[in-house]
Amino acid sequence: MTTKKAAIIGSPVAHSRSPLIHGHWLKQHGIDGDYARIDVPADGFNDFIRDFHAQGFTGGNVTLPHKVNAYNACDRLTDGAKAIGAVNTIWFEDGLLCGDNTDGVGYVADLDDAFPGWSDATRNMIVLGAGGAARGILFALHARGLKNITLVNRTRARAEAVASPYPSVTVTDWQGMALSEADLIINTTSLGMKGQPPLDISLDALKPSCIVSDIIYVPTETDFLRAARQRGLRTRNGLGMLLHQAVPGFARWFGVTPRVTPELRAMIEADIGA
Ligand code: ATR
């Protein structure tokens, strides 16, 4: 039997934890497979992808700076990828290059894990930031039937562009956020990431039942999450989103749907140095 091969494609890729995640699942399921890191320079994606299938790869993940390049290169796209305009998971079907974006569904799946039933109790949501991650999360929340979203971003025009496909999403500025009504608040900005300034907003008005989440996982607890935890609020970092976004790709390339277990989470936390 030939070894099934997948890879993470980006630049840089040395820091990526995807090989650890997929390597863990390959071992756990006893699959004869391999998940490599491939550094492809910013202007090299189209040349690289042309031979990808012929080199024996069944697919892979795509990260910066190639998520939009991959979107443009795909012959087939999922609805999610179309809505987001970027691709993080690729595979082949009938020889055609197919693409999906699993970040948003990974985010929602992680909340399902952490807080079962959370979506039944969620009416109003605030999303901070308007980059690719915010697009994915907006798409996935909508797919879950959660529509009452306020989008806030430093560059308002960017938020308006992200919100435009969704009539129920409103855009406001940092001062205009109705924090007291929020059931879920999500930081998708880079504020709070290692080496970046913290996200500094007052959490005074949040109700005790509000879930506070941050898609950042390095550090594992941002100042924003710490402040929320210290107020007794439920918090969630971005580690689960990272783990859950990997599930659909593994299932497509290797034919087994893997599970996100406490063991896997602990392994990645140890790697981060938490
Ligand atoms: P990603 O695709 O990973 O979501 P991105 O496209 O670089 O990342 O988006 C980063 C987000 O962090 C954006 O919403 C950005 O705001 P702008 O659209 O105004 O650039 C936000 N961000 C980054 N630095 C910020 C800062 N110092 N203050 C406020 N927002 C910031």
Q: How would you characterize the overall build of this protein?
A:
This protein is an alpha/beta fold and 274 residues long. It contains 11 helices and 12 strands. It has helices at 18-28, 45-50, 67-73, 79-84, 103-114, 132-143, 156-163, 223-230, 239-245, 247-254, 262-272, and strands at 4-10, 33-39, 57-62, 76-77, 89-93, 96-100, 125-128, 149-152, 170-172, 184-187, 211-214, 234-236. The strands form 2 sheets. The protein has a 6-stranded mixed sheet with strand order 2-1-3-5-6-4, sandwiched between helices. Strand 7 (125-128), helix 6 (132-143) and strand 8 form a beta-alpha-beta unit. Helix 5 packs across helix 6 (132-143). The longest helix has 12 residues, at 103-114. It is globular and about 60 Å long. The model has no long low-confidence stretch (mean pLDDT 97). The site of 2'-monophosphoadenosine-5'-diphosphate (ATR) has 14 residues, from helix 6.
